[in-house]
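Schema walk-through. Below, the input block comes first and the output block second. Nothing else is stored per chain. Lengths vary across the set, and this one has 360 residues.
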Amino acid sequence: MKILFLSESTASTGGTRQLLLLACALTARGHSMTVGCRPSSVLNAVCPPLGVKIANFAFRCDADAVSAFRLAAFCRRERFDVMQTFHPRAHAAALAAKYLGAPAALVVRRGVIFPIPPNPFSRFKYASSKISALVAVSEAVKTEFLKAGVAPGKINVIHPGINVKAWEEAAAARAVLPWAPPFRVGMIAHYSDFKGHDLLFKAAPRILADFPDTRFVFIGRGENALKAMAAEAGVAGSCEILGTRDDIPALVSGLHIVVSPSRQEGVPNTLIEAQAAGVPVAGSNVGGIPEVITANETGLLFPPNDPEALAAALLLLLRDRALAGRLSGAGRESVARRFSMEAAASRFEEIYRAASGERA
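--- output ---
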C-alpha cells in the first residue's frame, strides 16, 4: 500500500517517535511510506535515510486552507491508499482535504488524553463520516473519543509500540547496575505542567532524607524551567537536568528507577521503554498509565497529584531490592509480549486494509 503519515510536530516527541518507528516497520513490510511534515520538523532529516519519503506542508492552524488544498492535490497526484494523522493540525488539514476530494482513506491517531472540547467544530473533527477509522493509544483516550460522539465501531485501541530488540543492549547494561546508593531516579518528559515535574521536586527532599546521595535525572526539553523549580525546592545540587538527548537507551541503562508523575497521560512511551531496559517503574494512576503498569506486578502506581505518595512509592523500591528486581523482570516480559512495534504494525495493517477497502 501507499501510505502517507501527517504531523505538524517539529520536535522529537513521543508522537513523532511513534510515527517514525511505525513508518520503519511498515517500510520493512513492503509498504511505500511518505511523511508529510513542516519544513522545520526533525523528520526531514531522519526519514530519507530510512527509506521514507518526505513532503512539506505548513500546517499552521486548524483552518489552514492552503495546506488543505495542497494536501488534497498531493493525494490525488500520488494516489495514496491511506493517510494517517498523528497530531491535531495535520488532522484538521487532512479532514479538509477529504472534503476537497482527496481519495486516500483517512485514519486519525490520538495519543493524548486531553478532553476533546464539547463544541460543534471538535465534534465534527472527530465524528465526521470522512474518517474511516480512529486509533486511541489507550482505553482512556478511547473514552474521550466516545464522549466526542465517535461511533464505537470506528475506534481501535493500539498501544504505542517499541523496537524491543533495540533495548536489549540497554537491558544488558542495566542488569549489572548495583542496587545501592547513590541511587539515580529518572524522569523522561518535556516540561509541561501536566507531566508533574513539580511533584517529583516536592518529593525529592523526602527521598534525600533517607538516601542523601540520590541523583534526580531529568531528560527532556524545558531545562530553564526545571532548573528554576529545582532551585526553588532546594534540591538543585541533587539534580541532573540534561535537556533533549539522543542517547536515551544509554542514559536509561544507568537509572535505578524511572518515574512518571503525570496529572494526565495518554500512554507514556518512556515507561514502556524503561521496562524494556529492565528498569523498575512507578507512575501516577491516571489515563493510560495503568494500561502500561500492572500495579505491584510490573511496577508501582500512586495517586495523582500527591508528592507524599510519590515519595513513598520511590522509597519502597529503593529499600526493597527484591521487589525492584521482581517488578523489573516482569516489566520486561510484559513489554515484549504487549508493546512490540511488530504487533502494533500488524494491527495498523488490518485497519488500513479495511479502510482502503471502504474507500474502494
